[in-house]
Amino acid sequence: MCRWLAYSGSPVRLEDVVYKPDHSLIDQSLRARMGVETTNGDGFGMGWYTEDRHVPSIYRDIGPAWSNRNLRELAAAVSSGLFCAHIRASTGTPVQQTNCHPFRYRQWLWMHNGLINGYASVRRDLLLAVDPELFSGIEGTTDSELMFFLALSLGLEEDPPGAVERMVGLVERTARCHRIEYPVQMTIALSNGECLWAFRYSTERQSRSLFHSLDVQCLRDLHPDHELIQQASADARLVVSEPLGDLLEAWQEVPESSYTVVRRGGNEIRTFTPQSA
User: What's the pTM value of the predicted model, to 2 decimals?
Assistant: First the structure.
């Protein structure tokens, strides 16, 4: 599987979140604690928004994140108020740049941890369900990117949560035709540059881990001597595959079959229910 994080708040240098915490995403690329694999070295990527550019920038590569000097240089130079970062552990598709997350379409960024079980059996049927006008945008071979383009085909730009629910419903219906019992395992991060959505769901109801950070002012009161917390802006929010340090009280688990909506100044939790397309 994979590990990922998404940040929303006042602009910070990417390295402050991606590199500096005790159990940062870079540390997780070597020593993940809650993932299926301890090592996530099959590529990485970052996507970030800036005030002067509507379309997000992305940087992706196929090597391990822990040894990439260009990634370190970039993270130290770039500041953003909304960004995503992902480290990949392949579930069988090739290690190539077009298979690294995040995926981008216009102003949208998409990251995924999980898989479609029996993907080889359902891939053709699902590809045929992609809107023909969007099909040429698919560059790689992963189930993750295909899920993104299915959601785009099902109304993502008008109704992001509803489109993801319809996408999962379509995957589950297609998988049943192929007698696949538990097809969907996912945590997903999705953003349009203004809002961040993070989903946690699996057909089996045993989803991979996902957490969001608590209110910064509460954390400041609890940890007045913690430098990173004291420096964080009041509107800062993080959604992560696993906590970035040992302050477990700083994190709250996103419940099973739900999603969180993060906007500047706060977040809320809502129920996630797959729908008929």
Answer: 0.95
